[in-house]
Amino acid sequence: MVDFHISKDIEASQEKVWDIVSDVDREPEFWHGTKSIRNISKKGNTIERDVVIAFRNSVCREIVQLDPKKRIKTEILSGPIKGIKTVTLTSIDSN
User: Which of 11, 65, 84, 95 sits between 20 and 30 A of 19, alpha carbons compared?
Assistant: First the structure.
């Protein structure tokens, strides 16, 4: 198993950053390699969806769980890639 840990400091409030990253339907605008998203179901803070990625236009089945203003956990269940992608928000100081 391979782990990647990447961090980015952003000069904005946690709420402002959350408003952008939690709009997971807009992921193709921000995540290179994500071509399109088709939501299958939404129940509370859990979304089941199919994602077309750039690698041979392959489809990945994903379960996305939103933990408001804290993290987004994406479990990739099937497709050429399987695993977990987690985006975590951490406040550095008062901003």
Answer: 84
Contact 27, 17 (CB under 8 A): no
Say which DSSP state 3 is in. -
Q: What is the C-alpha to C-alpha distance for residues 66 and 93, in angstroms, rounded to an integer?
A: 23
Beta strand 34-43 pairing with 83-88:
unpaired
DSSP 16-82: HHHHHHT-GGGHHHHSTTEEEEEEEEEETTEEEEEEEESGGG-EEEEEEEEETTTEEEEEEEESS--
The pLDDT tens digits for 31-89 are 889 999 999 999 999 999 999 999 899 999 999 999 999 999 999 999 998 999 999 99
Residue 52's beta-bridge partner residues?
36, 59
